[in-house]
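Structure first, sequence second, as always.
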């Protein structure tokens, strides 16, 4: 005989993961006893675990700007692969969580010898970005805040970026000219699109 252990689907549409466990009669007896004991002391079995850790995408504030001009190019192939996945997830409707310091985009760079993700000037870039993004979106965006990036929000941020009123964080960045040319080219071929929520939550989000 076998048991099926189904891990529940989380926020994604992925089907539940099914693990089959074949048991001989001895093991079956032991498992029955274990289930009895565990359920009687109120542990584990009724608790639901998510099999996909860290489902909310972590983003540091200045990367909210960098994503506006992301074309699928970056520091290393690993960096680009990871960045592409993050943008795809946002474009599929996943929310983002604002964090202080290194985020999911930084991850492939953290083991590099010249990693700059913890540097003071980069943290300062986050602070500048945060204050301007809050004023554009009219919503709190401090660490821990969860945001939905709808197409309307992205358009609004891009409009301010192109006008230059959302560029304080870009001061001193080596990519400044490049990002300006992308903005002046109307963000053509940029990968971040976002996705609208259902009409109900969209209305409350964008009110
Ligand atoms: S100029 Fe630098 S900080 Fe500004 S959006 Fe481009 S890459 Fe990001």
């Amino acid at each position: 005989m076998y048991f099926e252990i189904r891990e529940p689907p989380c926020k994604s549409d992925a089907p539940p993961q099914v693990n089959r466990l074949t048991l001989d009669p001895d093991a079956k007896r032991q498992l029955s006893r274990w289930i009895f004991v565990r359920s009687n002391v109120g542990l584990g079995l009724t608790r639901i675990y998510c099999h996909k850790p860290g489902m909310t995408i972590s983003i540091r504030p200045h990367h909210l700007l960098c994503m506006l001009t992301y074309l699928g190019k970056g520091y290393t192939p690993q960096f680009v692969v990871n960045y592409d996945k993050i943008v795809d997830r946002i474009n599929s409707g996943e929310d983002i969580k604002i964090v202080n310091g290194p985020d999911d985009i930084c991850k492939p760079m953290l083991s590099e010898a010249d990693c700059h993700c913890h540097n003071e000037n980069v943290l300062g870039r986050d602070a500048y970005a945060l204050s301007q993004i809050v004023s554009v979106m009219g919503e709190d965006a401090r660490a821990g805040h969860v945001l939905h990036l709808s197409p309307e929000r992205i358009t609004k941020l891009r409009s301010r970026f192109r006008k230059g009123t959302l560029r304080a964080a870009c001061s001193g960045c080596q990519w400044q000219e490049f990002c300006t040319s992308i903005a002046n080219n109307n963000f053509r071929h940029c990968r971040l699109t976002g996705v609208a929520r259902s009409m109900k939550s969209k209305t409350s989000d964008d009110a």
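Margin note: The mean pLDDT is 79.
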